[in-house]
């Protein structure tokens, strides 16, 4: 459908609505949500329906960074910014808060959390000390919000693996932690045995529970080894993708596809891919 060139939001420049400014984006979002003239899809949305898109857009930003796709990053960041604007617009309609409140909150938080920059504390401190100070400030913020439990405030909407690390870090601060990696490895062996027992029981709910326990302990091992488990799994995914594409290419050179092959042949090609990577 052709655009209405007379619509003020399509103008290259409009008083108070610079085409590159945040005010124009806010106006666009308000127009999309207008009950009379807006987009039916946008009007139907609420916080719950938009939240999954917010998470997805954050992951797409991370993906662009991981691929060093710098030409794509402005667009991906724009998509993520739109999610913030969408939530703020719905909140404004409900009389809860608006975009200005969002900006004010994060600005105040950044100033409060950096007293060595915006306050009278010395900037002459290590990065590790800054992290400790940051955690102390966040602890005071949680106390002000009546979050008394050690695990309070760890967001439910985080990816499960990331949330596991955050929960474990919180517990470790009060001494609930294994002394070292060897103890975690012993626990992994125990959880693996329990997973095998659950498999043999053919109780799927129990099997799911034990699998979750094993993944949780694996995340804890990553923490003890100072490994980001999300990053480790991303690297493993990339490696799998790279090697499987080697298999596809090798078979395609013979005019064949994986469907025309068998596990033994593909496994042999996988080993060739490994050797090729090692140079």
From TrEMBL:
Is Cell cycle included in the keywords of this UniProt record?
A: no
> What reaction gets catalysed by this protein?
ATP + H2O = AMP + diphosphate + H(+)
Enzyme Commission number(s): 3.6.1.8
Q: Which CDD domains match?
A: NTP-PPase_MazG_Cterm (cd11529), NTP-PPase_MazG_Nterm (cd11528)
Q: What class of enzyme is it?
A: hydrolase
An example GO biological process term is:
response to stress
Q: What GO molecular-function term can you cite, just one? A: ATP diphosphatase activity
Domain (NTP pyrophosphohydrolase MazG-like) ranges: 45-118, 184-243
Assigned keywords, A-Z: Hydrolase
- Please report a single Pfam family linked to this protein: MazG
Q: Which InterPro entries does the record cross-reference, listed alphabetically?
A: MazG-like_dom (IPR004518), NTP-PPase_MazG-like_C (IPR048011), NTP-PPase_MazG-like_N (IPR048015), NTP_PyrPHydrolase_MazG (IPR011551)
Q: From which residue to which does any coiled coil extend?
A: none
Q: Report the sequence similarity comment from the record.
A: Belongs to the nucleoside triphosphate pyrophosphohydrolase family.
Record protein name field = Nucleoside triphosphate pyrophosphohydrolase
Q: Which organism is it from?
A: Paracoccus thiocyanatus
Its taxonomic placement starts with:
Bacteria, Pseudomonadati, Pseudomonadota, Alphaproteobacteria, Rhodobacterales
């Amino acid at each position: 459908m052709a655009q209405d060139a007379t619509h003020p939001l399509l103008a290259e420049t409009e008083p108070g609505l610079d085409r590159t400014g945040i005010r124009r984006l806010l106006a666009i979002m308000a127009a999309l949500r207008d009950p009379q003239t807006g987009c039916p899809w946008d009007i139907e949305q609420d916080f719950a329906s938009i939240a999954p898109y917010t998470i997805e857009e954050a992951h797409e930003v991370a993906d662009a960074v991981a691929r060093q796709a710098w030409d794509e990053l402005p667009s991906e960041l724009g998509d993520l910014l739109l999610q913030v604007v969408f939530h703020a617009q719905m909140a404004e309609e409900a009389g809860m808060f608006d975009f200005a409140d969002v900006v004010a909150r994060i600005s105040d938080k950044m100033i409060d959390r950096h007293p060595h920059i915006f306050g009278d504390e010395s900037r002459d401190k290590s990065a590790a000390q800054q992290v400790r100070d940051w955690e102390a400030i966040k602890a005071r913020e949680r106390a002000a919000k009546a979050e008394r439990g050690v695990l309070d405030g760890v967001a439910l909407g985080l990816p499960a693996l990331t949330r596991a690390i955050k929960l474990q870090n919180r517990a470790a601060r009060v001494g609930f932690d294994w002394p070292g990696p060897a103890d975690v490895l012993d626990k992994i062996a125990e959880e693996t045995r329990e997973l095998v027992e659950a498999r043999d029981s053919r109780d799927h709910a129990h099997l799911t529970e034990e699998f979750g326990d094993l993944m949780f302990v694996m995340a804890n091992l990553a923490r003890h080894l100072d490994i980001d488990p999300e990053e480790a799994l991303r690297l493993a995914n990339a490696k799998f993708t790279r090697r499987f594409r080697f298999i596809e290419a090798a078979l395609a050179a013979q005019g064949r596809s994986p469907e025309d092959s068998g596990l033994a042949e593909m496994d042999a090609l996988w080993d060739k891919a490994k050797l090729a990577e090692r140079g």
